Amino acid sequence: MTTATAPTSGVPVGPGLSMFDPIFVGIDEFGQPVYITLAYRNLLAGGEPGGGKSGLLNCIAAHAALSVDSRLVLLDGKLVELGQWEDCADAFIGPDITEALTVLRRLQVVMNNRYAWLRAHGRRKLTAADNLSVITVLVDEIAFYSATVGSKQEQEEFVALLRDLVARGRAAGIPVVAATQRPSFDIIPTSLRDLFGYRAAFRCTTPNSSNIVLGHGWAEQGYTATDIQPTNQGAAYLIAEGGVPRRIKVAYLTDNQIAGIADYATWIRRPATGNRTEWEIAA
Amino acid sequence: MSKSSPRRPFGRNTGTVTVIEAKVHRSSARNARLAFILTAVIVGLLSAVVAASSMHPILALFIGALIGALSGGLAWVLVRIWPVLRLLWWWTTEIGITIVLGAAWVQLANHTPLPVTLVVVALVVGVPAAVPVTRRALVAWTWCLVVRHRLRVCFAQFIIANQSGSLPLILWATPTPVGERVWVYLRPGLSMADLEGRLDRIAVACHAATALVERASDGNAAYLRFDIKRREVLTATVGSPLVDVIDPATPATDRAMPVVPTALDLPDVDAPVITLPVQKKPATTANGSKPGASSSSSDADDVSDWI
Ligand SMILES: Nc1ncnc2c1ncn2[C@@H]1O[C@H](COP(=O)(O)OP(=O)(O)OP(=O)(O)O)[C@@H](O)[C@H]1O
Ligand SMILES: [Mg+2]
């Protein structure tokens, strides 16, 4: 398969990257770069197994890892999808719902504190000038925590905490990016699913599944992820700033590239995270 | 297209098309009569008034009637041949291109000997066809011409708009990497929702894979944009520019070697599994009410409970 070079002009990249910058996620059908600004948004990715959801999450994780004002909280039921970011993430949760609940409760407290702080300053939302980090929460395979592992009570608490983050985290700089194969009501309650503003639908097997991801009625208007070829992994319909689904191809990072970026990110955020001496010797 | 030749409609007598054509025909005759009367009266009166200032009023009245009748007749003819004019207008680009090419050919043939003529033609045709960029551009623009006609066929054949059978204005078309984009201005009687229900048929009529319709303007519901898609372009893998900004000489993070699980094949595993994920599960379920041993079956229960 051929490789298209990403249009780098105008792409804000570099060590001075910020989570308030537009994130490069791929190109659209016109060859134009596609950006999403995640600081005040939540994104839900859906699609059949092997569609490329984790590719999108890794793309966002790479930007977040290289951003100076960012913290990563990773919940990954499969361990390997986001596992390479473990060293530069503030929390990496594997298939363990107790730990997942703990970290979500911590995030909830942070969120409440930030709102109290904003209120004390007479403000309504966090901005880039506040020097507070954007805490990006990446959940790969929500269904694993919300419908598979743990007791029913724990699953419900997981959903409730996540819904709270999605509902209120936006203005406090805690965006949630979640991926799941089919976000139907038996996996994620509709009340949680409908709160995600941005949607990415990778290949789906039925127009109905596509509608579940993108929102009701898009398939009838001709936007259905069933027309993506099964071999064309990483192609998706994205609803972001424009409000209308756009056909995009997500930028893909190989394992080696991810390892390189993760090492670099770990290295540049070293002073902030302790055990610096050992690293300064290494550098 | 059949709609554009209203002199023949009564010869056909099947389907909705004929009905509309009959209507078009009647309304064309009525409009022509109306145009004749209106133009004749207004122009006649005006010219009579103007003429009266320089001659006897009765003479002026005659002159006015004459001029009115003449211009009324002109208006009548214009309205009656309007379908033909419309047809000519639809094919202006093609007619123009044909005329230019024909004229060029004639000039060339008249002024150069035959071998030179053939060489020039071979160059003019061959070079753009041989260079991939120009060839693709030519093909793309040709599709734009084709698609405008195909869209008009759609509107005329199965997207029946209003009683008088007026078609939407099909504005310009431009090539896109996936196909064409055509701008359309709807006439009363159609809406975007009507078109959305027929996108599959529009795609077929345009020999395309899929068709999409979008609002082209926020403030005007009549102004639409068709995206005709006939190619998949997003097949190449896209690289990330982030890869280029990192320092490749970064020291690799040295991680503590994680516990590498054994028992990686089915025969290695007997009864209740003791691998990494399940090891943590008893701790998980200890908080809940269920025993750890039956964790897999309780998962199934959980899913159905959830529904
Ligand atoms: N943007 C892309 N460009 C090219 N290939 C891709 C892209 N994204 C994914 N792929 C290919 O598809 C494979 C599966 O992708 P990925 O792991 O992201 O799927 P997924 O949707 O997360 O699947 P699952 O639901 O099983 O987790 C990858 O291993 C890769 O080979
Ligand atoms: Mg995945």
UniProtKB/TrEMBL annotation, chain A:
Keywords from the UniProt entry: ATP-binding, Cell cycle, Cell division, Nucleotide-binding
Domain FtsK, chain residue ranges per copy: 31-211
Keyword Cell cycle listed: yes
Pfam families tied to this protein: FtsK_SpoIIIE
List of residues binding ATP: 47-54
GO molecular function, one term: DNA binding
Keyword Nucleotidyltransferase: no
Top-level taxon of origin: Bacteria
GO biological processes: cell division
Protein name (record): Cell division protein FtsK
Lineage of producing organism: Bacteria, Bacillati, Actinomycetota, Actinomycetes, Micromonosporales
